Amino acid sequence: MSTEPALADYPIVRPVATRWADNDMFGHLNNAVYYGIFDSVINGWLAEATGISPLEHEARGVVAESSCRFLAEVGFPDEVLVGLRIERLGTKSVTYQLAMFRSVGDEAVLAAEGRWVHVYVDPASRATVAIPPAIRAVLEGICEPA
What is stated as this protein's family in its record (predicted)? Predict the structure, then answer.
């Protein structure tokens, strides 16, 4: 992620309210909370877009890689906006780019950038499988043209 993204660069944007318990001893969001928010944004959007719970699909996306770059402080009681887009869509995996924006006055300030890779597996055998058609269809719907 070489250039600083803007909220408008993300086809999916979800509001997230921070909680008192999210703050660490320094008064800002604990690092692990960012990962929880990113995971919830991805899976909440997928469930909403497909109409199927992530636990009810014939294949499950498991996290194979994740990262977060922290750029500005966020803490309770901030409400943030999280943008979601596709970096890469493969046969068995998808790489998401996420960005967390904090409202400062009338501006959306980039607070964190995330990267999340889901690899799809069979729930019983845990062998990798193709992304299910219902999921692929919604992912393709937010992919930028090549």
Answer: Belongs to the 4-hydroxybenzoyl-CoA thioesterase family.
